[in-house]
Write a structure and sequence with these properties.
The complex is a heterodimer of chains A (264) and B (159). Chain A has ten helices and no strands. Chain A is mostly helical and 264 residues long. The chains are: A mainly alpha (264), B alpha/beta (159).
Chain lengths: 264, 159
């Protein structure tokens, strides 16, 4: 075949492979949902995974939340001061955290902290033929290994995002009120007047649940699909972090476009 | 790690997460403020509502007494019809006047209610008769320029 034609053929092959992979991933996701019974009947399995995905991510989430909030406080104060409206600092910190930064940054951290661990663990279970051994013993690896991790991730993500936002607002309070000296009363009262429970907080929670589903599903699929070699597992782990970060940011745009379209 | 410790940590995590959500809902958001389960609806017609938006506060003497719950255009009178939802705890006289005000120079717009002297109170579905439209900055500037131009013209004729 001549060179340009081969290029086109390569492109076609890659496209077909990518589409086929998305199809396999979707079927895997549906199978996880269908075989989730065990994850709830033996809830101990899920609790164990919540510990690994959620509790062990706490430190990084809380510390990052504190610092993000403190930076928001500093930068927001610098900008708002120009317009003489420092009292709106609380609104700025709370809205940016609850609407965007809380769910998105927490999900990014969750993807790199817990998502990569899930992929590596499942990939290694596959490489050492533990999953095949389970099948030999008539234990369904999707129900026993995959589904509990999926539900643990979905349950942990909104809690982590809420903790991140709360910690960030505390950080903004520390810098704004305690350090710089913005009036404490107007900091909280303007925040309460402007932040709406359904419009802002509930939409933030919905976002974090969606991100939780996306990140955990990607991490599980990459692990389950990884070539059973050391190199394959390492590549799958990298792909988990890259893919889920991109998916989080893209989904965030779509969700934001739907949620805050008519709000003003 | 034993199962008991695992359960304890996960329990603490869930409690902390729900605590953070409650903190967001009650301390950061406006869940704790008056939800106004009991309210009555009053409508008002304005020539121009400026930048007024749904959910803008309705204030009387600076206190929030309700919210704007609906804005629509009436193609019979070519006026804007604004529906106000007022807290049941506060009653206003029938001849109350409503005006669209701005909080601060660049702040959001809200509706200010000025109580009249009537002994009959506003009821659900009533209409506020006395209204004052929003001040539109462009119109103000236009009027100013117009009066300046007129001044200049009259000066010229005087000379």
């Amino acid at each position: 075949m001549i060179a340009p034609l081969r290029l086109v053929a390569n492109l076609g092959r890659h496209t077909l492979e990518a589409v086929a992979r998305i199809g396999v991933a979707t079927r895997f996701f549906l199978a996880t949902l269908l075989r989730s019974g065990t994850a709830f009947r033996r809830f101990g399995l899920t609790i164990r995974e919540i510990y690994f995905a959620g509790v062990l991510s706490l430190i990084i989430i809380l510390v990052s939340g504190l610092f993000v909030g403190m930076v928001l406080g500093l930068q927001g104060f610098e900008t708002l001061q120009t317009y003489g409206s420092e009292s709106a600092l609380g609104v700025l910190v709370a809205l940016s955290l609850v609407r965007e930064l809380g769910p998105v940054v927490a999900a990014l951290l969750f993807a790199s902290r817990a998502g990569s661990a899930i992929t590596a663990e499942i990939g290694l279970m596959k490489a050492t033929e533990q999953l095949a051994a389970m099948e030999m013993m008539a234990v369904d690896p999707v129900a026993r290994v995959v589904a509990p991790r999926f539900w643990a991730g979905v349950l942990s993500m909104p809690l982590l995002a809420a903790l991140f936002s709360a910690m960030g607002i505390f950080g903004g309070y520390l810098v704004g009120v305690v350090l710089i000296g913005v009036d404490e009363g107007s900091f909280w009262s303007q925040m309460q007047a402007q932040v709406d429970f359904e419009e802002d907080i509930l939409n933030g929670v919905i976002k974090s649940v969606v991100f939780g589903v996306a990140v955990t599903a990607i991490a599980l699929f990459e692990g389950y699909d990884a070539p059973p070699t050391a190199e394959g597992v390492s590549r799958a782990t990298t792909r988990t972090v890259v893919t889920s970060s991109l998916v989080i940011l893209a989904l965030d745009f779509v969700l934001t476009a739907f949620m805050f379209r008519g709000v003003g | 790690m034993s199962k008991a410790w695992l359960d304890l940590w996960v329990g603490l995590f869930v409690v902390a997460g729900i605590g953070a959500l409650l903190f967001l809902a009650l301390k950061v958001g406006n869940m704790s403020s008056v939800r106004m389960a009991d309210s009555y609806q009053v409508s008002a017609h304005f020539d121009n509502i400026g930048g007024l938006k749904v959910r803008a506060p309705v204030k009387s003497a600076g206190v929030v007494v309700g919210r704007v719950t609906g804005i629509s255009f009436d193609d019979k009178t070519y006026e804007a019809e604004v529906v106000l939802s007022l807290d049941q705890r506060y009653a206003f006289p029938k001849d109350t006047s409503a005006s669209i005000l701005t909080s601060g120079l660049l702040g959001e717009q809200y509706i200010g209610l000025e109580a009249g002297g009537d002994s009959v109170k506003l009821n659900n579905g009533d209409r506020v008769r006395l209204t004052q439209s929003a001040v539109v900055l462009e119109n103000l500037i236009g009027q100013f320029l117009f009066s300046k131009a007129q001044e200049g013209a009259s000066n010229e004729t005087a000379q």
